[in-house]
Amino acid sequence: MNEDADAGVDEVTSALLTASRLLVAVSARSLAAVEDAVTLPQFRLLVVLSSQGPSKLVTLAGLLEVNPSTAMRMVDRLAAAGLVRREASPRSGREVRIQVTAAGRAIVDDVTARRRAEISGVVAGMPAGQRRALVAALRAFTEAGGEPPVTAVAQLGWT
Length: 159
Hints:
Helix content: 55-70%
Low-confidence stretches: 152-159
Oligomer: single chain
């Protein structure tokens, strides 16, 4: 890479690190409203169930990158709070699937709506031309990183 290309990479990297600080702060504020109800790892589990649908415990553990016993403790706590429920799989009576309840989905929807509103306020403060450029740049960035596009509001929760 030549010197000009290195400078561009460093400049973009610094700008993205600064933007990521803002996004983490927005995420933290959106979760603060429900911190009495769920922890961040429990919220991640609710988001996975909301976006992926009912799942087996081992699948949840894999998606959350935790061991199955940790996932089981999270499911136990969320089930006790009425935010998830266990049900027998229609394919096998021995297999248990975990599903988000309406109350659990409401938490995900509430946090997502708060996050979306705050981000929307930041974006609204930008000139229209810069907003269009930002969309193109962020699409290129996420594509280069292999992140699939968000297609539903429920998937905007932080997993």
